Amino acid sequence: MTEAVASAGYPTWGARYVWGGFWDALHAEWTKLRTLASTWWLLLAAAALTVVVSAAVAAAYRCSPGAGGGCTPAATGADPAKISLTGVYLGQVIVALLAVLAVGGEYGTGMIRVTLAATPRRLTVLAAKTVVVTGWALVAGLASVAGSLLAGRLILPGHGLSAANGYVVPSLANGTDLRAFGGSVLYLVLIAVLALGVTTAVRDSAVAIGLVLGLLYLFTIVAGVIPNKDLSRHLEQIAPMTTGLYIQATEGVAALPLAPWQGLGVLALWAAGALLLGAAVLRLRDA
Amino acid sequence: MEATIEVAGLRKRFGPAVALDGMSFTVLPGQVTGFVGPNGAGKSTTMRVILGLDAADEGAALIGGQPYATLRHPLNHVGALLDAAALQPSRSARNHLLWLAHSQGLTGRRADELLTLTGLESVAKRKAGGYSLGMRQRLGIAAALLGDPPVLMMDEPFNGMDPEGIAWMRSFLRGLAAEGRAVLVSSHLMSELQDTADHLVVVGRGRVIADKSVADLIAAASGDRVQLRTAAPAEAMTVLAHAGGTVAALAADLLTVSGLSSTRIVAALTASHVPFSEVSAHRASLEEAYMELTRDSVEFHAGASS
Amino acid sequence: MTVMTPPYRSELSSGRDGFGQLLHAEWTKFRTVRGWIIGLVIGLIAMAGLGLITAGGAQSSCQGQGGSARSGAACMPSFPLGPAGEPVNDSFYFVHQPLTGDGTITVRVTSMTGLLPSANAQPGSAGPASTGDTRPGLYPWAKAGIIIKENLNQGSAYAAMMVAADNGVRMQWNYTGDTPGQPGAVGPANPRWLRLTRSGDVITGYESADGTHWTQVGAVTLSGLPSAVQVGLFAASPQYTVKSQAFAGTGTIGLGPTQVTAVFDHVSGVGDAWTGADIGRPEDYPGFGDYHQAGGRFTVTGTGDIAPIPEGHGGDADSALTVSEFLVGTFAGLIALGVVAALFITAEYRRNLIRVTFAASPRRGRVLAAKAVVVAAVSFVVGVLGAAAGVLLGTAIAHARGYYVFPVSGATEVKVIIGTGLFAAVAAVLALAIGAIVRRGAAAVAIVIVAIAVPIFLAISAALPLGAADWVLRVTPAAGIALQQAYTQYGQVAGVIYSPLSGYYPLSWWAGLLVMCAWAAAALAGAAYLLRRRDA
After folding, report:
1. Which of chain A's residues have a Cβ under 8 Å away from the Cβ of B92?
2. What is the arrangement of strands in the sheet containing B278-282, beginning at the earlier edge strand?
3. CATH number of the domain bearing residue B163
């Protein structure tokens, strides 16, 4: 009686079982996400907040010439792409919030038991949630970054960061800017995955969002303030937000503690780690 | 695949508290099985272990011979209603059934069928947070029946329902059993189950105390009593005690006799010329049978009154 | 007939129904949730811990004499200290003579010119080796004028009347004191007359455009001034600095010394026996200070500065540890306290506990007020303890390791510690109010972090240009961070940018507190209104 008997007609292993189960779970998670009004409001909010902040910072930019005088790249070291992308600092809060609510909301209402009864393979559930939330974050990221790009292109040249002064006006035509803007979309996606993993591990929305945002902002502040150059540099090399945002740098890249793609890789490691931790908690604990 | 639930030797502790202490029983198709016990006896925990939500320290729980986790489209095998409030308040009822349907490869049409079946189609688009308790219960039943499963588990489905709702639920569950499904209904109120269940699994302190049909349970209870009104109580007591019954006096002329059928009592009194004016048989109720069985297992006694 | 049961009378003695009882109830609610207490403890550990790590983990490395690398305590700067104990720069060229008792000195300044490092000077250069490395130019805060100084030691008390290049006539005293007089540059066409009069401990400064009509600029008391002091002419010109790109324009880098040459005539009130002296570190810039006297005309050349040293990146005290660094953990503490405060009310909505609460206490505004008092009190305690650990223990640890901590007075330390407590308390009340408005824990926490923590982050991490960072720290609830400012911003010192990264905030402490309280009050008012209107 304690041995499992394969029921007639249903495979219990193999590609068809695994993928068939995953497809259904994916469909269910997508339905869950799209039938909540908050999903679409948060999408709008993420994009709007990012673009507004990027535009505001761009509009407030004043060229402050350095030793040589004049508003030139050599004198100011200003990075038009990074300035246009300042809004990401705010937009990531909304992206993280949606990822947190996608998991935390189930624990808060007890619906997680319904979900796990419908799909007992827990890692399948987590994988499906991750895919769906990643898709949402991708759309949110594309909207936010596209808006920021537009804001930067339109506003910054009027504040001294123009082609006439020798700056590169943000555009997707050149490889560095493509990396900065495209990479920022990837950054937001990784933030969503990180938040998803953390929430699955702690199972409470409010605590999770506090942890995620604290993790992101605190590391950077401590790394910047601590008066120990070695420790500071090491901290900067592992801080999730700082390293992830290296992808936005188009000026002074050589002086960064890590190369841009390496930085995004560090954030990817954080996200993967959080997801693994969440998977372990989900798998091992009672629902 | 057979429609059965088999539970064997489940043990589980939550920290120092023992929730399940060797729980074993089988739920067969074609009847409503009541799962009764005092608060804290382990009913909800057993159901969660069956569904793979909680892990047991020892033992196994099988659906049709298979562990829950190995079932493909498990809602097609077992439909469960554990907590009617496990809903996202800002999602409509239809959408709740919709995602559940999608998770089993079913379509929205199936969701609409269930809404009609449970009488919720007029409020289907309303947000679940605004539902009354009765509506939530019906939504939970709709969710449990989504996959048309041969096995059904309900955790205290009568809680908070009005008399009409209870009557509806009762006939509904009996109808499902009549179709050949295995229905497990947990409750801690016997009066609800009296006319619903055919078979009872009585549990207390994490283990099974009794596993019989309702009729057997009532018969086994020592609650059969006969009330007797007589002008000569002392003589009646002597005669009936001689005949093998246990007699107690309720009032000056009222006796209660257990252990003897009313026929025997009448015969014994007539033979000894003891006058009596009233003989009324008092059948034990399921509630009394249950109270007797679980007296030692009740965890939470009220103060003073017993 | 049966007797009817009399109506039930409770024998429970009825307690008082005041705000005190409500407060007691809310406090009991708070302290009996283990998770919230743990949250407070985590906030405290984060605050104190980060401060102590900063102090205990500080490392400096620098180049010693002869190019050898040095680290730790050997890299700590040492400065002369002014009369109040603050680090100061005190180096200039002094054409002086002794003065005993009361006296006066009058002088006319007819020209000020100067030399700056050449356009391609590199940071950290020792100085122009020859005039070929310089170009003409007057540094904005170059100073020349008359001074009465206690003695020739660095850091001694003084009062001076001067012309400060582009900043007009000024009276300055004891390094931190500064009063402006007539603005405008000085030149042959518009000379300036300056006068200092000493009477006991009081020194009064006067200026005039023509030598006949005098205006008093200021009168200062230098308590304990000895009878015999030094009086004379001086010239000083500070280091040339530019904004540092390494800190995105919020720090400065020195590019080398500058020089000023001033011409004085019509010197009166004193004798003719003058001595010229380099006060300060003459060996660093040999031959930079000098004077010539031809008839009644003095030409004095000097370099250096008589000014306080502010702490900050790029200043002379760059490698000193600061109290602001020990308070870096406040950020973490704020997040933890914000989460706990928001949860204190949103948790009631989760299981409809709010209905029990309002049934027990129907006056909903009072319930909100009681909750606000509880979170404010616990947050104040956590803030004070965390700041005290950081500031007091951190300073002690740094000193024990031989590190120089930029000094703050005891009163300032107390102000910063209490200020952090207030900051935390008002932040917690704001979080509670937001939680009452949105009723969902995660959303409340996100809003609180965006309102308070993110502006601080953006300002400190130099993600925003300085103007935008300033605006953000004036307008958002993060303005309360002004309560933590430990060091004074001196307007009269060149070469340091006062940025949030160095612990300078745009508002004064009471203005910052006011802004933050305004936000909290508005949120509370909104929350109270909604609480009353909405169904529970």
Report:
1. 35
2. B246-251, B254-258, B225-229, B278-282
3. 3.40.50.300
Residues B85 and B165 in one domain: yes
**Pick from B73, B75, B98: which is nearest to A31 by CB?**
B98
pLDDT score for A1: 31
Both B270 and B165 in one domain: the answer is no
Of B219, B244, B265, which residue is a domain's last?
B219
pLDDT of residue B296 exceeding 80: no
Q: Evaluate if residue A6 carries a pLDDT over 60.
A: no
Q: What is the pLDDT of residues A147-196, one digit of tens each?
A: 999 999 999 888 888 888 888 888 888 899 999 999 999 999 999 999 99
- Residue A90 contacts C, CB cutoff 8 Å: yes
Contact residues for C100 (Cβ-Cβ < 8 A; gap 6+): C227, C228, C229
**Does B55 contact A111 at a Cβ distance shorter than 8 Å?**
no
**B11 and B81 assigned to the same domain:** yes
Claim to verify: residue B230 and residue B212 sit in the same structural domain: no
Using a CB-CB cut-off of 8 Å, the residues of chain B touching A35 are: 91-92, 95, 98-99
Amino acid in the structure at residue C214 = W
B15 lies within 8 A of chain A by CB? no
Cα distances from C355 to residues A108, A191, C359, C368, C536, in angstroms, run: 19, 37, 6, 14, 6
Q: Can you tell me the distance from the alpha carbon of C144 to that of C377, in angstroms, rounded to the nearest whole number?
A: 54
Chains C and A touch (3+ CB pairs under 8 A): yes
Backbone angles phi, psi at C200, to 5 degrees: 70, -120
B162 with B263, same domain: the answer is no
Whole-prediction pTM: 0.84
What are A35-45's pLDDT values in tens digits?
A: 999 999 999 99
Instruction: Please give the single-letter amino acid code of residue A215.
Output: L
Q: Is residue B295 part of a domain?
A: no
Rounded Cα gap, residues C265 and C146, in angstroms: 12
B92 shares a domain with B45: yes
**Residue A163 backbone zone (phi > 0: left; psi -120 to 50: alpha; other: beta):** alpha
Q: What is C88-308's CATH number, 2.30.38, 3.40.210, 2.60.40, 2.60.120?
A: 2.60.120
Mark whether B243 and B210 lie in a shared domain: no
pLDDT given for residue A124 in this prediction: 93
Q: Which of B50, B73, B99 to mutate to test the interface with A (most CBs of A within 10 A)?
A: B99
Q: Residue C350, SS3?
A: helix
At residue B175 the predicted structure's pLDDT band, cuts being 50, 70 and 90, is very high
Minimum-distance CB partner of B60 among A2, A113, A119:
A2
**Residue B152, in any domain of the structure:** yes
Last residue of a domain, one of B219, B237, B264: B219
Record: contact A5-B65, CB cut-off 8 A:
yes
Which chains have 3+ CB pairs within 8 A of A? B, C
Q: Which residue of A has its CA nearest to B129?
A: A109
The CA distance from C89 to C82, in Å, is 9
In a domain, B189, yes or no: yes
Q: Is the pLDDT of residue A65 over 80?
A: no
**B251 lies in some domain:** yes
Do C261 and C95 meet the contact criterion of CB atoms below 8 Å apart? no
The H or E element that residue B205 is part of is none
Q: Is A36 on the interface with C (CB under 8 A)?
A: no
For an interface test with A, the pick among C33, C63, C335 (most A C-beta atoms closer than 10 Å) comes out as C335
Q: Which positions of chain C have pLDDT values less than 70?
A: 1-2, 61-77, 119-133, 243-252, 281-288, 312-318
Chains sharing 3 or more CB pairs under 8 A with chain C: A
H helix and E strand count, chain C = 12, 20
Range of the domain at B239: 224-281
The domains of chain C are located at 19-56+320-453, 88-308
Shared domain for B153 and B249, answered yes or no, is: no
Decide if A217 and C245 are in contact by the 8 Å CB cutoff: no
Residue B300: pLDDT band by 50, 70, 90 thresholds?
Answer: low
Q: Where residue A206 falls among pLDDT bands split at 50, 70, 90?
A: very high
Calculate how close chain B gets to A39, using CA atoms only, in Å.
11
Domain count, chain B: 2
Say yes or no: B234 contacts chain A, CB-CB below 8 A.
Answer: no
